[in-house]
Amino acid sequence: MKTVALAGEDDFDGWRDAARALAAAGIAAADVTWRVGESGGELFGDAAALTPAAVPHFAVPRAFIDLARTVVCHSDPQRFAFLYTLLLRLRGAPRALEDGADPLVRRVEALAKAVRRDIHKMHAFLRFREIEDDDGPRFVAWFEPEHHIVRAASGFFVRRFAAMRWSILTPQLSVHWDGVRLVEGPAASRADAPADDPVEAVWRTYYASIFNPARLKVGAMLKEMPKKYWKNMPETALVGELVAGAQAREASMVEKSGTQVGSNALAAWQAVREEARGCTRCHLFECAMQTVFGEGPVTAPLMFVGEQPGDQEDLAGKPFVGPAGQLFDRALGDAGIDRSQAYVTNAVKHFKFERRGKRRIHSKPDAGEIEACRWWIEQERSILRPALTVALGATAGRSLFGKAITIAGYRGRAHALPEGGEAWVTVHPSFLLRVQDNKEAEYARFVEDLVRVKERLTELS
Ligand code: URA
To answer: What is residue 198's predicted lDDT score, i.e. its pLDDT?
Structure first.
C-alpha cells in the first residue's frame, strides 16, 4: 500500500506529481491512500517500487488536467482517488472522459460542477467592508466556501479590485492583496472581519434600485442566492421588506417617470454586466476570451437574442459584429429597424468552439450551457422588460421558453411570456449564410418577420 501526503486540500501539483509517479510504476488505484497535511507531496511506503518505469509514459488529454485541477478543490475526501482511477483508465481508453454515462466520469463531473458553482457564489456574493488601517482604507470580506476554492477564486478579485487593498478571510485561509502582491495568511473566524460599514449603505441602495417587484420569484431567489450567504450580504437585510412591499412598489414604479426608471435600470444593468465578466457558471469561460454581454439602450422596447458570440464577437467583446452580424444589420436596415434603438444579446455569453489548427470553429452550445447562461439573460430581461423579444434561432428560443422549440412551430406569431412581454421567433442570421437552396427567398422571409415585429411593436406602444 502506498500513502501519498499532499501539502494542502487543493494541492493539485502535489496530486499530479504523485499520480504520474504512481501510474508510471504501475500502481493500482486500490493500492493508494491519499492524505492531506503532514509533510506535503511525499510518497510513503515502498518508495523503491516506484523507481523503475514499469509502465510506458502516456499522455492525458488537456481536458482531464483542467477537470482534475477543478475537482481537487472539492471537499470530498475521495476526490484524489477518483481522479487517480480515472487517470489510469485514460491510459487504455484516451476518450473515456467523453462517456457521459460512465458513473465515475459522471461523479467527477459532478464534483467539478459543485466546485465551479462554489467559485461563482464566492465571486457573486462576497461583500467587502471598509476599514481603516495604518496605510489607509482596506476592504475586508468574510466568506465561508463549501469547497477548497479560495486560491482558485482569488484571481478574479485581483483582476477586478487591482487598485484596492483588500483581504478575504475564510475558515480555511486568508488572502491579502496590497495592490501588487497576493499573500496568504492563516484561517480566520467571522469575528476577525468587521461587521458593518458605510459601503453597506451603497449596496443596500443599489439592491433596492434593481429589485424588480414585478418579477418576484422567491424560489428562484433562494436557489440563486441561498440563505446561508445572506448573513454576509448587507442588501439581504432588505429582502423581507422589499418582498412585503412588492405590489405597492410595482404600482409606484409604473407611475414613476421614465427617466428615473431608466437611470436605475442603467445602474443595475452595468452592475450585472460587470458581474457577468467573471462568470464561471459553466466551463465555457475557460477557453473564451471574454464574456460578451448584451448591448443597446436599457430602455429599448425591443430585444434580440442570438445564440452565442462567434470568433469575432469573442475578440471584440460585442454581439453580432462578425459575418452573421453584418447580415443581421442588412436585414434590420431592409426592415426599417434601427439597431441602435434595440437591445441585442445572446442566449450564451461565451464563445464555444473547437480548435482546428489556428482556426476556432463554432460549436453549438448544449442544453446545460444554455441553462447555466439563462441566469444572465433573465437578469437582462428583468432590467429591460422589453415589450417584444425576438429569438433568433432555436438556441435563443430554448433560452427564452425554457424548453426545446422548433422554428417551424413557433415562427410568425406572438407568444406571451410568463414574466410579461411577448416573444417572436425567427431564424438565426447564420442559417441564411449557410443555406444553399432558396437563399434569396429565405432572406426575404427573415426580413418579412422583422417587418412584422416592427409593426407589432408600433401596435403595442
Ligand atoms: N451569432 C450569434 O448568435 N451571436 C453573435 O453575437 C454572433 C453570431
So the answer is: 46
Determine the pLDDT at residue 271.
85
What integer pLDDT is reported at residue 205 of this predicted model? Answer: 54
The whole-angstrom distance between residue 345's C-alpha and the CA centroid of its chain comes to 15
User: Between these two residues, 291 and 226, which has the higher pLDDT value?
Assistant: 291
Q: Which cell goes with 304?
A: 434580440
In Å, how far from its chain's centre is CA 101? 24
Higher pLDDT, 51 or 451: 451
pLDDT in tens, 410-420: 999 999 988 78
Distance 231 CA to ligand 1 centre (A): 39
> For ligand 1, what atom is nearest to the CA of residue 307?
3
CB neighbour burial string for 301-313, b if at least 16 within 10 angstroms, e if fewer: bbbbbbbbbbbbb
pLDDT in tens, 318-363: 999 999 999 999 999 999 999 999 999 999 999 999 988 888 999 9
Atom of ligand 1 nearest to the CA of 347: 3
CA–CA separation, 348 vs 56, rounded Å?
42
pLDDT tens-digit readout, 148-166 = 999 999 998 888 788 889 9
Please report the sign of the dihedral spanned by the C-alpha atoms of residue 264, residue 267, residue 271, residue 274.
positive
CA 146 to chain centre: 18
Atom of ligand 1 nearest to the CA of 396: 3
Other beta carbons within 10 Å of 145: 20
For residue 26, give every residue at least 6 positions away whose Cβ sits within 8 Å of its Cβ, in sequence order, or none.
54, 55
Per-position DSSP letters for 384-452, written without gaps between them: H--SEEEEESHHHHHHHHSS---HHHHBTS-EE-TTSSEEEEE--HHHHHH--TTHHHHHHHHHHHHHH
CA of 338 to the centre of ligand 1 (A): 18
11, three cell numbers: 494541492
Give the integer Cα–Cα distance in Å for 308 and 360: 14
List, in order of start, the domains of the chain with CATH numbers.
2-121 (no CATH), 126-192 (no CATH), 198-244 (no CATH), 262-460 (3.40.470.10)
168 versus 129: the higher-pLDDT residue is 168
